[in-house]
Fold this protein.
Amino acid sequence: MKPQTALWSAVALLAVTALAGGERLPVIKGDNSRPLVAVWREDWSSLAKDLGPFLIAAFWPDGRTVWSKDNVMGGPPYYQGRISPEVLDKTLRELESEKVFSAPYARLGSFGPDSFFTAIYLSYRGNTFLDRSWHEIAERNPKMVATSRGIVALDGKTRDQVLAGDTEDYLKYRALWKGIRAKLASLLPAKGAEAPVEFELREIELAAPAGPGKPPR
């Protein structure tokens, strides 16, 4: 991505590859740098001129927040604001109690080759959650649904009807993902100042996420 003026000194979202599992985790450079939460989109389609990441929202431990007005596709213009660190901690504690970091179906998301997808990263009290899925973006098309087997046409059925025939784990995963996204969206400030943000991609070695969940494919 073409560099822009940094929002704060050395603030940049990085999609970085973990040695274990080949997973991509976001970090933010600078003091107090690890974000507790980051949601973004990447575009690996054959026609993409920019792979991303395109930020949707990121929350720092001190309550600093950066977000896009587009809650699905992300990207500029970006806005900055602050939330209560206590509220952020409470939200992550609730997600922890809902087994986000430990449920065996918590990392079932998938995406295909030459696709674009949403990624969610959470870090809390030594546990991490990372998943990537294309279902949010794919289902912007009202005639399509993302199943555990891939993206398929509805063919006259509703999404609920098609998904009802899917696996129990995938349905639990979809519910978990939906709950995470709803909680994070509810945290965003009502107003913010427009701000330029700089992104880059870099590979570093990180420990694999905690919990028994299956790594994303």
